[in-house]
Each structure stands twice: as C-alpha cells, then as structure tokens.
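User:
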Amino acid sequence: MAPLPRPHSATTEAIYAAYAKARSQAWDSIGISISLLGEECERALWYAFRWASKPEVIDGLKAITFETGEIEETRLLHALRMIGCEVDDVDDRGKQYRVTAVSGHVRGKTDGKVLGLPEAPKTWHVVEAKSMKDTYWDKVKKLGVREGYFAHWVQLNTYCHLFGFERGLYICRNKNTGEVISERIETDHAEAIRLLARAERIIKYANPPPRLHDDPNAKMAFKCRTMCNHLANCHEHSFARLTCRTCIHATPEMFGDAAWSCARWNNPLSLAEQKQACPAHIFLPSLVPGELIDASDEEEWALYTLHDGREWRDGVKPEPQRSYWHHPESGSVFATLPGEPDPRDTEPLCEEITFAEFIRLTDHYTAQGE
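Assistant: Predicted structure:
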C-alpha cells in the first residue's frame, strides 16, 4: 500500500508568507556591497552592479534565515557587553555605521566597534559577527577566517581599512552546536586597497569581465550552476533587464555618492530613472545574446543576429505604455513593457501601482537601504 502523503500545513505556509511580507528587502543594491568584495567572479559583480539579471525574490524561508543571522549578531554583540566590553553599534541616527568607497559605488554597513577585549583592552576593533553551519564553521576554526572564509575576512578587513582601524574582531557562532569562536585580525591595508582598486576597475568596465568558467556544467563550476543569480545572462542567452544601467548611454560617475549620468540626454540619473529607463535605451552590445552586424549612430539603432539565428533590432522606440508593479514580499518596485509577461503569473503577490507610487516606493526602499 502506498504511503499517505504528508499533510499540507496551512499554518507553515502562513508563517512563511508573513515573514516574506514583513521583510522589506530592495531587489537592487545601489553599488557593490563590501560583503561581496571577496567574490571570486568579477563577472558576477559586474552583472549585479549593472542590474543586468533578474533580482532574487526573498521568500519566507530566506527571510527567516536572514532574521536568524540578525538575531545571532545581536546575541554576539550582547555577549561582548557581558564580558565588560564597550560596543558601539549605531551612529547618531541610531543606524548601523555606513561606509562608502569608489565615489559611493562600493558601500556597506559594519556590525560595530568594540573596546575592552581581554587580549587588547585599550584598542578599538571593528567587529563583524556571523553565524554559520558546521561545514563552514569547522573550516574557519581550523584555518582562521582569512583562509577559512575569505569573503568574511575581506568584509572585516575592508571596514578596518576604511574606518582607519588597525585591528578587527571576527566573532562567529556555530548554528548547529552553539559554539563560539573569536579571532583578532591585523588590518592588511595593501590587500584592502587592491580589492577596492579591483572594484573600481569592474565599475568602470563597459563590458562584462571574462567568465569564471566557460562550461557551467563542469565539475569546478558547481557555484555557477547552483548558486549564481546570473546564470541565465552569463550562459543561457537571456536578455538583460531594461534599466539605465544596461544602456550604452549610461555611465557610473567618479564623483558624488554613487552618481550615474546619461550621455544621450546629458543629465544625471536618479535611482527611479535608472530603474525605469527611457525610450532611447539601447543595450550594451555585450548584454545582447547575439552578434552585432550593423548599427547607426545617427539613427540610434543596432542590428543583431541572435543566438537562435533570428535578426533583432535594438534602437530608439516610441514611448511605451509601461506597467508599474510592487512586490511587497521583497520590497521591490519595477516596470514591465507591453508584451512582457504579467508578473502576477509567477508572483501572485505582485500588485499593479501608478507611476507616482513607483517613484514614492523607490525612494522609500532606497532610504531604508541607507
């Protein structure tokens, strides 16, 4: 006799939905996050910076996972206070300390600063608090954070460099056992400068850097096919998203705070404008899944042979009647063009909004990310 299927739990589904709705998570980062500076694949950083790939939706389970990390962070900072340390984890506005580099195109928030560690009671340290499962934790415990979890070390080291600190504290709790390890690091300013220079180079690229792996099905490309949000654009011939950052006319400026400009209209670009794009949008040729065969600067068009053999013309278009959408689960606002799929077909919680609401919500989520 076949076993009975496990009963569907409406309670569990309701909890996931509530967590997803409660978590306000903007889809797109303003710049390259310091938490990602240690990413091996420069192409992935470029795609994310250019808003080329479909952003990740934060579902209920992911929202719970993120909350767990935040709880562990609070617990570890409290543990430092329990042993008599002074922990400074918010600025004058009551928010996490924020730091930027490369004219605001690299940015991040640190967990805090700590004074009074038993090993060095008179030295201020930048502190990063993390939690992880056994597999990663054991490696960090054995090798240290630099060798065991390079991305975390890069994050802490870069904060130390940008805040002008010579020491950092990495403190981590094992999710499986509850064990805690802590490690002091000495700031490697040379490595921080190298990685920030690498980020600046990626930001200035007009075309994506080379792929980390040409074949996503290769054994060494496990991360490409299972963990990368850019697989469709990098390997599966998908078009990039329609935003100013995928347009040939847009440039990230090396002044101000994460400023972008448009050469077509000779104007600066607000975040809302960047997300919407305009009728004069022309894709960067490297983001079109095909070969450029002809183009006209005066008439503003480009002709491609796509990977499937079809011809496709990109160029100035009549003003389309866009539809504007809000996805409360992820805190995302975005636009679609006529003929594009209705996002409610795959994301039932999407709601159609007016252009005024699109601008208001874009500003709202941007302010929350600051």
